[in-house]
Amino acid sequence: MNLSEELDKIFEEANRLIGSSVDEADLDKNKNEYLGKKGKLTSVLKNLASLSIEEKKTVGQKANDLSKSLEEIVSKTRENLKTKGFKEQSEKEWFDVLRALGETEPGTLHPITKIQYEIEDIFTSMGFEIWDGPEVETDFNNFGALNFTDDHPARDMQDTFYLENGNLLRTHTSAIQVRALRKLKPPFKIIGPGRVFRYEEVDASHETSFYQIEGMVVGKDISAGNMLYTMEVLLSRVFEKEVKTRLRPGFFPFVEPAFELDINCQVCGGSGCSVCKQSGWLELMPCGLVHPNVFKLNGLDPKEWTGFAFGLGLDRLVMMKYGIHDIRYLHSGNLRFLKQF
Ligand code: FA5
């Protein structure tokens, strides 16, 4: 066998052996057997010295080519072994990430969200549209357009978080009625649920951030009777039973006459507790007939249009419905509390 034939034989052997490597260590060993310092292919090259110049050229070239091809076969095989390795590892070591968490429990709606959805259903069934507005509002939308003059004492009724740019965190959802008044063509009926913010002392029935639902109806000849009927429907559907309410005169610059609708405290049944401050009643839903100035300030003619508006305290409604004796539970994130709903 001449040197060239010997090279062919070695290449064939090497190709087979390298291709059958079972893992990377085996591959390194096999590679070394042919391409290492003392490898079979390397040793053939060492014998080149005994050949003629002509043979040296052809056999040398052939040996170089074969050695390059073998290097390529080695790197291909290494890649295959790596992929195979990952595959085998993932088959052996897989685990169910969800199972690793243990028992999972489905989430539930927060009681405030639940009642909000219920109220949205009640009002949409009466033909109301649902309106939204941003939590950061302009002073004008929150106060100015609602007939609060700059020095109006009512501004102090709702301690306000102001932002550096002159805007504020809305103190009530009445800012949503302003947006509706400016966008919609009367007649219209809207409700506007949302989160509001006030710089207040926190106690059993007061939070610094809470939820309200604004309601507004604008049309021809809207009366206090229409307003009271709407509120009765709302309360009887939410509570699914008769609840005692009372109306007191109220004061808000954007409604005239203004009323406070109180609900008989459902936590103590009216006998007095920390939620109702021992009075047996809880302030729930102020309301009134839209003040003519509000129509004027928002581009509508008060001689042509009438309306009513109300602002329901959603947290307090939830407290009354479920007999919750402290508003702070609602924003606590306490799962033991929330799971009950
Ligand atoms: C207002 O916010 C008026 N914008 C409501 C209104 C709308 C009047 C339309 C007339 C026409 P008031 O500040 O009273 O009003 O708040 C309304 C309701 O929000 C209260 O009756 C109460 O249920 C709830 N509320 C007020 N302050 C808090 C508080 N700190 N924590 C929880 N609920 C509150």
Automatic annotation (TrEMBL):
Location of the Aminoacyl-transfer RNA synthetases class-II family profile domain: 113-340
Note on cofactor: Binds 2 magnesium ions per tetramer.
UniProt-recorded name of the protein: Phenylalanine--tRNA ligase alpha subunit
Domain of life: Bacteria
Originating organism: Leptospira neocaledonica
Enzyme class, spelled out: ligase
Annotated positions binding Mg(2+): E256
GO molecular function, one term: ATP binding
Localization of this protein: Cytoplasm
Gene Ontology, cellular component aspect: cytoplasm
A family per Pfam: tRNA-synt_2d
NCBIfam families per UniProt: pheS
Complexes and interactors: Tetramer of two alpha and two beta subunits.
EC number(s) reported in the record: 6.1.1.20
Family: Belongs to the class-II aminoacyl-tRNA synthetase family. Phe-tRNA synthetase alpha subunit type 1 subfamily.
InterPro entries for the chain: aa-tRNA-synth_II (IPR006195), aa-tRNA-synth_II/BPL/LPL (IPR045864), Phe-tRNA-synth_IIc_asu (IPR004529), Phe-tRNA_ligase_II_N (IPR004188), Phe_tRNA_ligase_alpha1_bac (IPR022911), Phenylalanyl-tRNA_Synthase (IPR002319), tRNA-bd_arm (IPR010978)
Keyword annotations from UniProtKB, A to Z: Aminoacyl-tRNA synthetase, ATP-binding, Cytoplasm, Ligase, Magnesium, Metal-binding, Nucleotide-binding, Protein biosynthesis
Catalytic activity: tRNA(Phe) + L-phenylalanine + ATP = L-phenylalanyl-tRNA(Phe) + AMP + diphosphate + H(+)
Cofactor(s) it depends on: Mg(2+)
Matching SUPFAM superfamilies: Class II aaRS and biotin synthetases, tRNA-binding arm
